[in-house]
Amino acid sequence: MSxxxxxxxxxxxxxxxxxxxxxxxKINAEQIKRPSERQAGFCKAAAGDYGERLQKxxxxxxxxxxxxxxxxxxxxxMRPFRDGxxxxxxxxxxxxxxxxxxxxxxxxxxxxxxxxxxxxxxxxAVYSHQFSFKDMDAGEKPMELDxxxxxxxxxxxxxxxxxxxxxxxxxxNSMSMMSYATSGFVAITLAEYIRRLGYSAKAHxxxxxxxxxxxILLMAGLGEMSRMGDTVLHPFMGPRFKAAVVxxxxxxxxxxxxxxxxxxxxxxCKKCARExxxxxxxxxxxxxxxxxxxxxxDVQKCTTMRVGNQHGSGCGTCVKVCPWSKPYTPFHxxxxxxxxxxxxxxxxxxxxxxxxxxxxxxxxxxxxxxxxDKNGDGNLTIPKSNNTKVx
Amino acid sequence: MSxxxxxxxxxxxxxxxxxxxxxxxKINAEQIKRPSERQAGFCKAAAGDYGERLQKxxxxxxxxxxxxxxxxxxxxxMRPFRDGxxxxxxxxxxxxxxxxxxxxxxxxxxxxxxxxxxxxxxxxAVYSHQFSFKDMDAGEKPMELDxxxxxxxxxxxxxxxxxxxxxxxxxxNSMSMMSYATSGFVAITLAEYIRRLGYSAKAHxxxxxxxxxxxILLMAGLGEMSRMGDTVLHPFMGPRFKAAVVxxxxxxxxxxxxxxxxxxxxxxCKKCARExxxxxxxxxxxxxxxxxxxxxxDVQKCTTMRVGNQHGSGCGTCVKVCPWSKPYTPFHxxxxxxxxxxxxxxxxxxxxxxxxxxxxxxxxxxxxxxxxDKNGDGNLTIPKSNNTKVx
Lengths: 391, 391
Known about the structure:
Two copies of one chain form a homodimer. By secondary structure, the first copy, chain A, is an alpha+beta fold. Chain A has 13 helices and twelve strands. Chains A and B meet through helix 3, helix 4, helix 5, helix 6 and strand 12 of A and helix 3, helix 4, helix 5, helix 6 and strand 12 of B.
């Protein structure tokens, strides 16, 4: 739950969603070869696979803006608390797995999650090897995680900022870091609570994951695979969130995957592909890759844009322009219902989104300062690409 | 700001509030003798001033419930990050203190604060000596804090839980800890951001304060002094929040104190005094104490109830029953407006609050488990005073 605002037990009306037995994009578990964490785009950039310039930029692309730097500092401070000792005996809980699941989700909302889902932990989602760009000398080590269940925690990247920013200006990384750090704070606290109940539990949040998040979000009913490559899209927040995960051996009742028509919608829309400044997003059809059905993404182009951006800090243009990334107002809720439920209305929705000018920066609500630590010494200057007008 | 829900730049319509030059309760700065932190109720309990039984209970009253224990663990993990080094040079900020103030408040909302206010740091609000019940052997040391300004950050204790709980059952401490830890997380991150701008800044959150919070909340326009002794009441959350503070030498434009009629309201209502299980809250008139005008509170009785409660973990009965502690629904917003603005309606509001049954536990929304670590060894049992029915 996000603060004081009235809520039912969940933040969003998930009871309106159509549940399905399998995710709307195929997952052939037996074909999946578990990747090493080393294969992630950011790890490749950090390790120099994308060249020397990007490797150098990687070290500064988050702290080069003071706000994203400050939030990432806090995120990193919490890293030692991802795991811990559990109680010596199990708590006398109800003999009712559904009630326990509901309780764990309520607890995550109480800790101010924006959306929560539960699934069995798919073994194929765990990295084969761990590799940290924070500690590259340690190299790759086999990853072991024998938990049975996963709790996924989503934190919104802030709709007000999403409306104001251009997609790739100086606040972009701060939005990511805020959701990373906040979801990490919630996941770490929830994992400690479960350990105090006498069950094993570990928190995973960016960039400290033992697992790949997208399949967990699909299985936990938190979204469908979208055109933006490996990005899962939530029916009420769109792609405007980051996710943390708690894995545990506490038995829980899994949520079911959802179908809100996104495969049809993304087939038609293509706005993210059109607007992507690095042309990393395909406007073609889905493919099968390593056992997953998905739209292909050019990870190197995407990573190069985010890490190497000289006119801002990071990039979230796809998040910015996605028609699903809207404020939760009565008007947008009505459109959202229509897009989810009325197939033939989707093409009008997509057309209307452009027509009404959505996805353009709303400069009058810009609240941040464009600042850059050019040399990594903490001295801030106003970058050439700036628009520092704050009302 | 608390997540994705639509917001203007602030969460609440503070522009509706009447601003005044001085707080609605007198503060005679020259009469105030700065107290040592050692004089706080919890420190007295920890140090044994309230007897051996309470001293022993103090060690377990938070961790005796696994959720409040887990959140307090996280809160304590963050303690080392309250302060840090600042950038070697000052950022090229706008020569416009108002815009900077607005920006800092926007940043705090972006980090998911529920309410934010700014004031000059009153020297009398700083403790004369620091004393930590986490580190009692260190004794009392003179407190020094030469910052000029304070940013106060409020985090709601969760309205849904507030409606469900009895006021003094097993979730009470968890509500406090959630707001303590969350406000600390925001304050620590904001302070680091300000240090990266080249200004000194330090985060203060429970129980790691260099200062007393109530006068700062009054000066920052976040509430008025209420009948509940040293508790400041926010016009839209009531007393259902905890506060963290960032002190800094960044020049800012202070907010002005507010007057929403609370002195008149609390003079008539007295519901908290009537319902307080320890009879710590006075139903009499305000007094002057150490330069502050306030309703008197029997701190020993209040602390004894919270620390020594054998039928739950902590106590927040006054928070639970206060007529200002309501969900932010259209109905309650209308009543809230009326109570703030129409003096003669207040007695009907107070009468109606009891008549409509507000302040009673709404058991159907109970989501937590009643559990107790009886012996401090991590083994949980179901306490005798329990009501563990979760739908």
